[in-house]
Amino acid sequence: AVRSRPGRVWRWRNLLVSFAHSVLAGLWALFSLWHSPELLSDIQDGYSVSGHLLVCFSSGYFIHDTLDIIFNHQSRSSWEYLVHHAMAISAFVSLIVTGRFLVAAVLLLLVEVSNIFLTVRMLLKMSNVPSPALYEANKYINLVMYFAFRLAPQAYLTWYFLRHVEVQGQGAFLTANLLLLDAMILMYFSRLLRSDFFPSLRKGSAGRDVDGEKFLID
């Protein structure tokens, strides 16, 4: 099913790499917080070697994925992903250099647990799996994981930064990044709801060629 559409081959391979990163980074973030729960009491200056290495690892993935998109001439169809990666790379590099807010990055990387099921969703759609039950099961698990590991950590960090972090220097930069990420996450959540739970509300997707798109379109 993938090879029948040339534009999907790159996307399939790219999503498999994304899936591998989501499994590794998601489980790593859970382990880091489980192993050092005291980090949650100091989001600004808490530090662990595991968390630091996790941020370095994910930064490497974002850089790799950015180059993969550009070198395979997918920038136009995946421009939203490039914006997201630019935000993530710049924020993570500032954390790696300063050693501050690493705990916030680990909390944000809990989103990769949700991305496991979101990526599985897209792979199932691309491969035309003949078992609708598998897609249906993943659809509801994906929704639960979206709330638990994407919306909840994001909402908590946004509240924390707006209430406790000084809006200057690195704090202002990271707060602005968080607010932009909030808007992106809510936009993708609305797409997910329209596509999987309220298909009658979908607009403009009929007949659209989305083979190169990385983000949730349909």
From TrEMBL:
One of its GO terms (biological process) is regulation of membrane lipid distribution. Signal peptide: none annotated. The chain crosses the membrane at residues 12-34, 103-124, 144-162, 174-193. It is found in: Membrane. It is a multi-pass membrane protein. Residues 7-201 form the TLC domain. InterPro entries: TLC-dom, TLCD. GO terms for cellular component: plasma membrane. SMART domains: TLC. Keywords: Membrane, Transmembrane, Transmembrane helix. PROSITE patterns: TLC. This is TLCD1 protein. The lineage of its organism: Eukaryota, Metazoa, Chordata, Craniata, Vertebrata.
